[in-house]
Design goal:
single chain, elongated, 3-stranded antiparallel β-sheet, 16% strand, alpha+beta
């Protein structure tokens, strides 16, 4: 990541600033999958795994850098989301809540909401991690409904966490968000319906 627009902070200074200036922001931390703190001026302190970090002038500055950097690959990593496949009962409802709040209208698992999501994606260069995960699950529910399948959870590439997939009675496995992953990490314009269609064409589904 380009650090020219951020101030580097040592591990010692990080501890001092947390005690005196910066307060942990759980929503930002969850959105970026990073440890993040905020002060009264709106500056953001981002702490890395070593305990040191960087202070950014604003959230907008961080969003711009994330979109332009390799950190997008880490942020949009589907692994390390679900650790237990038997504790996923709330994800379907959480997905609708997240997307409804994002679009400021009721979202359902249907084509109308899919069209609204595509419209939103066409105007936003940055998607936070919470929204990203909601889009991933939403794509699975839509795909499953279209092709008489169901959403299941398979072991991810890290062999420690689980990822959502769609399965059918012919033992086929679909990943309708794979193109979404690619376009987000490549900072390209994204379409969730296009990602779903690409998976459909890949498996020759009518």
């Amino acid at each position: 990541m380009n650090r020219e627009k951020a101030i580097k902070v040592s591990k010692k200074d990080v501890a001092a600033k947390i005690q005196s200036e910066f307060i942990h922001d759980p929503e930002l931390s969850d959105a970026f999958n990073l440890s993040m703190y905020k002060d009264k001026l709106g500056r953001i302190l981002v702490i890395n795994d070593k305990g040191s970090g960087y202070i950014w002038a604003s959230l907008a500055a961080i969003e711009k850098i994330v979109c332009e950097s390799e950190n997008a690959v880490s942020m949009y990593n589907i692994n390390n989301w679900v650790k237990n496949k038997y504790l996923v009962t709330g994800i379907s409802a959480e997905t609708l809540i997240t997307l409804s709040a994002l679009l400021k209208k009721e979202v359902k698992y249907d084509g109308n909401s899919l069209a609204e999501i595509d419209k939103y994606l066409g105007t936003k260069p940055f998607i936070d991690r919470r929204t990203f995960l909601a889009l991933v699950y939403f794509s699975c529910e839509i795909f499953a409904a279209q092709f008489q399948g169901w959403v299941d959870w398979d072991l991810g590439s890290d062999n420690r966490s689980y990822i959502p997939v769609v399965k059918d009675d012919r033992d086929r496995v679909y990943v309708p968000y794979s193109d979404l992953l690619e376009c987000l990490t490549e900072q390209e314009r994204c379409s969730l319906s296009q990602s779903i269609d690409i998976e459909r064409y890949r498996h020759n589904l009518s």
